[in-house]
Design goal:
The chain is an alpha/beta fold. It has a domain of about 70 residues: Ribosomal Protein L15, Chain: K, domain 2, CATH 3.100.10.10. It is about 20% helix and about 15% strand. The protein is built from four helices and six strands. The strands form two sheets. It has a three-stranded parallel sheet. A three-stranded parallel sheet has the order 2-4-6. The longest helix has 9 residues. The radius of gyration is 34 Å and the shape is elongated. The N and C termini lie far apart (about 80 Å).
Length: about 140
């Protein structure tokens, strides 16, 4: 077998439509373009989403969704990660020193995932209900 002897599989290629070649072809006269109008003419073009001057649908419909600007400066920490901070008093600065939060984070929330090994004080962080129960059960303290 040689590359020049290979062809597409049987039925894989169709012959192109020969538009405007008589009534018997099925695409004669208007050649599938319909009658008159901008799209029937050569060079007929309109902007995507343009509706002839009518207010386009993407501007008529209400916008949805919301991205909180606070989410850029808010992080989350698990109970397991709190143990890695190593300090007795854990706040945002202590978590940043332990590389658990990036530099731009200004506020954080502790979520109840994992377990803690020792008692410590959580200061200035938001704490979920389950995380608060786990910290206080282990002898720790949560301060606002």
């Amino acid at each position: 077998m040689r590359l020049n002897s290979i062809g597409p599989a049987e039925g894989a290629t169709r012959s192109r439509k020969r538009r405007g070649r008589g009534i018997g072809s099925g695409l004669g006269k208007t050649a599938g373009r319909g009658h008159k109008g901008q799209k029937a003419r050569a060079g007929g073009y309109h902007k995507l989403g343009f509706e002839g001057g009518q207010m386009p649908i993407q501007r008529r419909l209400p916008k949805v969704g919301f991205h909180s600007r606070l989410s850029r400066v808010t992080g989350q920490v698990t109970l397991t990660q709190l143990g890695l901070a190593g300090d007795q008093i854990i706040d945002v600065a202590a978590l940043q020193r332990a590389n658990l939060l990036s530099k731009g984070i200004k506020r954080a929330k502790v979520i109840a995932s994992g377990a803690i090994a020792k008692a410590f004080t959580v200061k200035g962080l938001r704490v979920s209900r389950g995380a608060r129960a786990a910290i206080e059960a282990d002898g720790g303290e949560v301060e606002q």
